[in-house]
Design a protein that fits this description.
316 residues; alpha+beta; Lipocalin; 2 domains; nine-stranded mixed β-barrel; 6 helices
Length: 316
Amino acid sequence: MRNRTSVSILVFTAAAVGAIVSASVMRPSGQTVRAARTADDHPNFSGIWQANNEAHWDLQAHAARAGAVTQQGAFDLSYVQVPAAPSLPFGAAGGVPGSLGVVDGDGQIPYTPGAAAQKQENAENWLDRDPEIDCFLPGVPRAMYMPYPFQITQSTNKIYMTFTFSNAARVIHLDEVEGPPDYKWMGHSVGRWEGDTLVVEVTDFNDQSWFDRAGNFHSNQLHLVERFTPLTPDAIHYEVTIDDPEVFTRPWKISMPLYRRLEPDIQLLEYRCQEFVEELQFGHLRKEQLVRRWEGETLIVDITRKVPAADQLYVR
């Protein structure tokens, strides 16, 4: 489940170099800029990009919250929540910023009744269940709007995306290829051009990834249709139609802009978080516990570990 394949981008880079021609685009300021296109006259998305929104925390509109994990406050009101013990030491740094949401239409995710209950349970057990906590691959579309940059390298028949978090990667095939032999964290992506819009169908997911930190999830029947449309040379309109008949009552859609990172020395830096979660995942197997207590100026945090059930231990 944690298969992480390192793929060289050199072959894609070589195919992309020399394939860029220019077309004029007028910015609102009146300044003319040059939008890159490939030799076969498609938009060239090669570069480093990043979302700038709060979808990473929760796809839906939400008010700011006191912590990623909260509990009932002093009053018996659902909207009076205080940080739960895991969030408390982080103070404002552990809070969740508010958002207008990225779900199109009425802003609601059309869960079936059973799936809606599962989503709520996921949210209440975020620290125990979110695959991000264990540095598992983020899946799609989550990888696209995590708060880290990602790089696109485009050639005529492949588009390669490499992500900062967990060394994740995906290949969008613009040619005919066989499907994968098994379900995958990042799915199987097949693209085509509709004018200047890159349309990508993504299938063959496992059921392990989430959409965000709020517990929104899917089954292995997830089917995505992504649409990448250039807005300016430095912005892409990203739209995803999400369909999963086991979890949702109908298809639904999210959309957002993706922005090019314009720093002259920008480059993708690895965030190999696997080594950072070894103590979290396997620390309970130590003969003598290493992480048991933290004492600060105003708080003491004592840690008591629970040994996972055998199947969950195997997953880790």
